[in-house]
Amino acid sequence: MEKKIKNNIYWVGKVDWELRQFHGSEFSTHKGSTYNSYLIREGKTALIDTVWAPYAKEYVRELEKVIDLKKIDYIIANHGEVDHSGALGALLHRIPDTPVYCTAAGVKSLKGQYHADWNFQVVKTGDRLSLGSKELVFIEAPMLHWPDSMFSYLTGDAVLFSNDAFGQHYATEALFNDLVDQCELYSEAMKYYANILNPFNQMVAKKIDEVLALNLPLDMICTSHGVIWRDNPVQIVHKYLEWAKNYRENQITIIYDTMWNSTRTMAEAIAEGVMESGGINLKLYNASITDKNDLITEIFKSKLVVLGSPTVNRGIMSSLAGLMEEVRGLGFKGKKAAAFGAYGWSGESVKTLEGLLKNAGFEIYDEGLRLMWNPDGDAREKCREFGRKLAAVSAS
Ligand code: FEO
C-alpha cells in the first residue's frame, strides 16, 4: 500500500506486526517492526530501500499496484542488510537493468549476500543524483551500523532518509512520530540504540556533528524502521548525541540468577540496602526469566550494575554468562559494577562475574559479597550493608 509522506514522497514498505525476534534470536521485538521503503516521484523516480526477504513477493506485488515497475529510474540501497535489501532480487528480476546506488562497501555486501551482478552505481559522501528539480545527496555513514550504511538527503523537501539510524522496532500504521505513544516510541528507540548502536558511539557522535555542520534544512527524518520523525525531527538527533556519550541515568540495576533462592534472597536484601539510601532508581531482575535485550537496555541506563550468581561447577549460571557475552560486545563505558553470590563449597562465582564485568569495560567495586548456604538474618544484614555501600559507590 502506498502512503503519502510529503509532496512526491510515498511510503511503500511493510508493517510486520508479528515479528518477535530479529537478528536471529539476538534482538527481541515485542512490538513488531516495519521495513520502510520510499518512492520518490519527481521528474525521475527513485526507490529507497526495500523490505525483508519473506515479504519480497508481497512487496513487489503491492509496488506494482502503485507504479509501473519500468518507471523506476533508480534504486537506492542505503544499507545491504537483508531486512532492507531482501526484496531487491525479486524486484531486479523484473527490472534487471535498473541502477542500484550504494556505497562501495554496499556492493561488497550485496554481492556477498545475493551473488548477483546488478547494475551497481557506487556513490560516496557528497555525490548527487538529480531527480529533476530536486536532488538526492548521499552521505556515507560507515558502521552506523554496518560498513556499507549510508544516508540519502532529498533537497527541496529537506528529508533525510537515515536507514537504521533513528529507527525503532515498532510496528505502527500511524507512520509519524507525533501520532504514536511517546513512551513506547522512546522506549523502543532507546532499546534499538542500546542493543545495536552502542558499540559505535564515537562514530554516531562524529557523524551527527558532521551532518549538523552542513546546516542543511531538515523537515523530516525518514527511518527504515518504525516511525518517521516529522514533528521536531532534531529531537531524536539530540537524543542520539546524549545516548552516544556514555549515557547513564541515576539508576542501579541488580541482575541475578538463582538455583534454590539463596542468591535471590541476597539480591532482594541488597536492594533493600540500596533503597535505604534513597534518591536512586533501583531495578531488580532474574536474568533467566527476563528478556535479555530489555536487561541490556536497563544496563544502558544504569550507572552501577550488580550481578549475582550462585557458584555452579566452579563458575556461574548460564543466563548471566550469555548476557555478559552480549554486554561485552556492546562496549559500555563509564559504568561501575559489583558482584555477589551464594555458594555451598567452592564459591568462585563472584570472581568469575567480576572478571567478566572487568573484561566488558566496567569499573569494579571489588569487595564482592559471597555467602555460604542460605542467608540467615545476619547474612541478610550483610547484604543490606553491601547495598548501602553500593549506593554510596554509585554516588561517588
Ligand atoms: Fe535494519 Fe542494519 O538493518
3D architecture notes:
- The structure is a single chain.
- With 396 residues, the protein is an alpha/beta fold.
- It is built from twelve helices and 22 strands.
- The chain has a seven-stranded mixed β-sheet with strand order 1-2-7-8-9-10-11. Strands 17, 18, 19, 20, 21 and 22 form a six-stranded parallel β-sheet that branches. Strands 12-13-14-15-16 form a five-stranded mixed β-sheet, with no helix packed on it.
- The radius of gyration is 24 Å and the shape is elongated.
- The structure holds MU-OXO-diiron (FEO).
Which descriptors apply to this entry?
12 helices, alpha/beta, six-stranded parallel β-sheet, seven-stranded mixed β-sheet, 22% strand, Metallo-beta-lactamase, Chain A, binds MU-OXO-diiron, 396 residues, Rossmann fold
Q: Give the CATH architecture of the largest domain.
A: 4-Layer Sandwich
Structural class: alpha/beta
Q: What is the arithmetic mean of pLDDT?
A: 97
Q: How far is the first residue's CA from the last residue's CA?
A: 55 Å
What kind of sheet is the major sheet? Answer: 7 strands, mixed
Q: Quick one: CATH superfamily of the largest domain?
A: Ribonuclease Z/Hydroxyacylglutathione hydrolase-like
> Which parts are unreliable, with pLDDT below 50 for 5 consecutive residues or more?
none
| Total number of distinct structural domains | 2
Strand tally is 22
Which molecules are bound in this entry? Answer: MU-OXO-diiron
Could you state the oligomeric state of the chains shown?
single chain
* Percentage of residues in helical conformation: 25-40%
Stated plainly, the CATH topology of the largest domain is called Metallo-beta-lactamase, Chain A
Strand content: 15-25%
The level 1 CATH classification of the largest domain is Alpha Beta
- Largest sheet, order of strands side by side? 1-2-7-8-9-10-11
